[in-house]
Write a structure and sequence with these properties.
The structure is a single chain. The chain has helices spanning about 10, 35-40, 60-65, 80-90, 100-110, 125-130, 195-200, 235-240; strands at about 20-25, 45-50, 70-75, 95, 115-120, 135, 140-145, 150-155, 155-165, 165-180, 185, 200-210, 230-235. By secondary structure, the chain is an alpha/beta fold. The strands form three sheets. Strands 1, 2, 3, 4, 10, 11, 12 and 13 form an eight-stranded mixed sheet that branches. A three-stranded antiparallel sheet has the order 5-9-8. Strands 6-7 form a two-stranded antiparallel ribbon. The radius of gyration is 20 Å and the shape is globular. It is built from eight helices and 13 strands.
Length: about 260
């Protein structure tokens, strides 16, 4: 089955207001910027987003966030995204913050058909006991707090019950993909992308290099095409457009002074 769609706008054409999205990437690495920009151009709003973070440096999900298109975020990291923090504290945005490893496993579990699992992460904290601010009232008070979760003991250790995550759509970025949807991710872009792709009922992948079926060694496939419904081939310019979040330059040392 040829899953290639001609344009990013066509690929996200059925993503409607209020849809839930699992979005790959971490910081600026492996973010499906072209698909996100296509959603922005369509004017979709009221989105519930599941992603490690909500964009950075005015790119990625930060584009939708700044436009007021996101209603809820499930993630594990705010970082230096000042607009994310502002909307959260002002009561404009509902935010569920969970441990990073738990987020990864909730996405994987949802994609694997596992409705829930137990983990020790969060036991003895508000993650398990409830009370984490999901939404503020804009005046410093909490309008909506997280509920308590079930805690059980196994072999003398307590574990908290976490639900698997399934979303209406997933947006991911891969270094290489074929027309059947088999994907390969490059280095650190293989972070949340495979997990987000598994969690989406309809998964859309933008790929930097599109190849024919059979061109990818089966042992090199990071995500089988069964998890991917649509593939968008990026232009060379789109594939090369990659930002650097933290640019660090070291001061050169004079010869002979290294020690």
């Amino acid at each position: 089955m040829d899953k290639v769609v001609a344009t990013a706008v066509a690929a996200v054409a059925d993503v409607g207001d209020g849809a839930s999205l699992a979005v790959g990437g971490f910081g600026l690495s492996g973010v499906p910027n072209v698909l996100i920009q296509a959603l922005h151009e369509r004017g979709v709003s009221g989105l519930s987003v599941v992603s490690n973070n909500c964009g950075a440096m005015e790119s990625g999900l930060a584009v939708l966030l700044a436009a007021g298109r996101i209603a809820r975020v499930t993630g594990s990291y705010i970082g230096a995204n000042k607009e994310f923090a502002r909307q959260y504290l002002a009561g404009e945005l509902e935010v569920e913050m969970i441990p990073q490893g738990t987020l990864a496993e909730r996405l994987r579990a949802g994609g694997a058909g596992i409705p829930a699992f137990y983990t020790p992460a969060g036991v003895g904290t508000q993650v398990a006991e409830g009370g984490l601010p999901w939404r503020y009232d804009g005046s410093g008070g909490v309008a909506l707090a997280s509920p308590p979760k079930e805690v059980r003991e196994f072999d003398g250790t307590e574990y908290v019950l976490e639900r698997g995550i399934r979303t209406d759509f997933a947006l991911v970025r891969a270094a290489k993909g074929d027309r059947h949807g088999n994907l390969v991710f490059n280095k650190s872009t293989r972070n949340f992308n495979p997990l987000a792709a598994m969690a989406g009922r309809v998964t859309i992948a933008e790929v930097e290099e599109l190849v024919e079926p059979g061109a990818i060694d089966p042992d090199a496939v990071h995500l089988p095409g069964i998890f991917v419904q649509r593939v968008v081939a990026l232009t060379p310019e789109q594939a090369a457009d990659k930002g650097i979040e933290q640019r660090t330059v070291s001061v050169p040392q004079a010869r002979g002074t290294e020690n």
